[in-house]
Amino acid sequence: MGVLRRRDQKTHHDGKSMTLSVSSGSGDLAADRRYQWGLGAAESGDFDGARDLFNQAVELVPAWAPGWFALAQVLEALGCRAEAVEAYSKSLALDSGDALGAGLRLAALGARAVPSAAPRAYVQALFDQYAAKFDRHLVEKLAYRGPQILADAVERAAPGQIFAHMLDLGCGAGLAGAAFRQKARIRTGIDLSPAMIEQARAKNFYDRLAAADLVEFLNAEPAGSADLAIAADVFVYIGDLDPVISAIARVLAPGGLLGFTAQSFDGEGFRLGDDMRYAHGRDSLSDYAARHGFAAKEITAASTRKDRGVDVPGWVAVLRKG
Ligand SMILES: C[S@@+](CC[C@H](N)C(=O)[O-])C[C@H]1O[C@@H](n2cnc3c(N)ncnc32)[C@H](O)[C@@H]1O
To answer: What's the whole-model pTM score?
Structure first.
């Protein structure tokens, strides 16, 4: 086991791109070799070759979820939707927590209802394996500017205010927290990914860090115990924001601010994109605010990052608790 380490590879075919997750081993050396050769073939654009190799891998180890997932990805890239759906379904059946995200891919392909949020195991696995290179990748490759955009919006809503207790929701490695360093006397960071929490800890500016799901963490916090909550590039992993905004509303003191960024689309509610991230319509954000006793100080169009060189449309929002 464990001959292959998990990482992400972008590979391109006829202008399309796919991300292959390199999993831990199947327990069978011959299958692992075919899997690894398949990754190499896909990376060099030989998707037919990759399909054959992944097929051989799952013939050798039929109960290996990552093998089916990789096969599904090349089938998808080759335009073989029905076969891809079948392979993703096999992967999902073998991966009960859906750490690989096969359920999300099936939803993106229209073969399954869109889940209300990305599976926890998927988010944790994604960020645990991404943590060490997160800061550099986001800032250098994706031109990530969410933290500054969010800090500027909070400053517009409350010029010069220093907050007593800030919750950095989905703090990741602390990029957004850093932009609020001078703005809050006590800083708490929460994230599902223990590896991201360790990156945040190394930055040395959080007073408290918790590896936890946001709603579970918030439900255990005293009511009215924070006056600022931020969530930078986190709601892209949550479609239905009702549970998290309700939990934030309880923990914020009256007059407290919730600032967040989100991906946007021109429609109602939320939708899951091909990038496996959720986008929210403007009206849905206003509705959450009204339903949970917030006044919207601003909900402004703002792009916080690029995808393959193109600005991803988004929102920056600041809500004030009544
Ligand atoms: C793209 S990163 C952004 C990190 C940081 N806010 C920043 O701006 O650099 C998204 C983070 O949200 C976390 N996350 C997503 N869903 C979560 C949830 N339900 N509970 C806790 N953390 C979550 C992920 O683990 C990841 O570290």
So the answer is: 0.91
